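Hi there,

I know you've been waiting on this one. I reran it after we fixed the sequence typo, so this is the corrected version. Both the input and the resulting structure follow.
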Amino acid sequence: MSTLAIVITVLGYLALMFTVSWYSSRGSNNSTFFSGGRKSNWLLVAFAMIGSTMSGVTFVSVPGMVAASQFGYMQMCLGFIAGYLVIAFVLTPLYFRLNVVSIYEYLDQRFGATTHKTGAWVFFISKILGAAVRLFVVCISLQLLVFEPLGLPFALNVLFSILVVYFYTFKGGVKSVIWTDTLKTLCMILAVVLSIVFIAKSLGINIIDAIAGSENSRIFHFEDSNSTNFFWKQFLGGLFTVIAMTGLDQDMMQRTLSCKNARESQKNLITSVFMQVVVIFLFLCLGVLLYLFAGANGITETGDKIFPAVATSGILPASVGVLFIIGLVAAAYGAGGSALTSLTTSFTVDIIGTKNKTEQEVTSIRSKVHIVMAILMGIVIIVFNALNSDSAITAVYRIASYTYGPLLGLFTFGILCKAKVADKWVPLVAVLAPAICLVLDLNSAEWFNGYKIGFELLIINAALTIAGLCCLIRKR
């Protein structure tokens, strides 16, 4: 696939995305930026959330991880379903009852101002790092396919990507994000389904027979409890990861809270998670076919690089390369835009504060924060490019295990226990819990007879946070 064809495809999609963003952001104000005016259609949000949970990381890494962990990721998806039930019937009614703009306002009402800001800062660090990983994936692919052939540096690539996500979200906020996520979801599903069809046709195989007969299509793994692919590690990791990364994430809940009421928000969440599991299964099926195609055509790339390598190899029809570019760009820029919007919302509402400020003052603050968040995201992407050596999907979940653990612990303690704590010491707990987890993670194999900590690190992190909060309980 030529560089010119890729550039035309990227610019064509961006033109369509900006058109949708412009149309949806007409008449926007601070209310629509932060919460969509609480008028979003639940079915539209459910469909949009498929794309919002899947970034360029999902698009590239999930098919690539099949060779290493087979269909073991589906074990985690079963945990996702259980986690969404908790979000729908425990967290969502709580948020609507409190009528919050930022979900971390709950921490202020439950514990105090210091805990409120602690939660906001933890989210800020989590989302900056997570968003950087997601945008990093598309930047790497665009560097390989466009910027490098044109002799342009990676820093210019990052600047271009950051400007894209800034300009399509700076006015409409979450309202624009929902509509562009809908477009993104449609493009991703179309890309993965048609890629499966084209690859199977090129190989001359029956899709169902090829996938069912592949050793990489094994889902359940019960035999080795030390393995990170062990069923209960994956299931529990999926359960608590989705509670933390969706239910306790301003980025994800900002869409859900834009629904008219808690009932419609619950319908949105339940519908969305089942559609998400189906789409993830399709990505894994695509992974099996990608490795079959690579083996038959002498392509040696694996992991995150196999889908780009196959799609742009020139062996398949040019339409496959176009679909890959559209799907990747849609996934990555959509995720970057929603992350930028949520960071702006949380920093403006939680850390700076909007109480006793006029509409004009809030708008001015929000605009400046939006610019600063965009610059920070670009800097972190460049740093991550210098340090990255892992699969992107693994990197996202490892980051989440450290950064979302304190949030999961704070909300769990706050909901299940009515005791008051010494608010001023909560930041210390939020720092110590991840620090202890890092020590355990680095030494688990040596200390625990070969046992390697996987995604259950998030659970350990949350448990340590809860233990720390118990130490801070005030005596009556």
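Quick highlight: The chain has a mean pLDDT of 82.

Best,
R. S.
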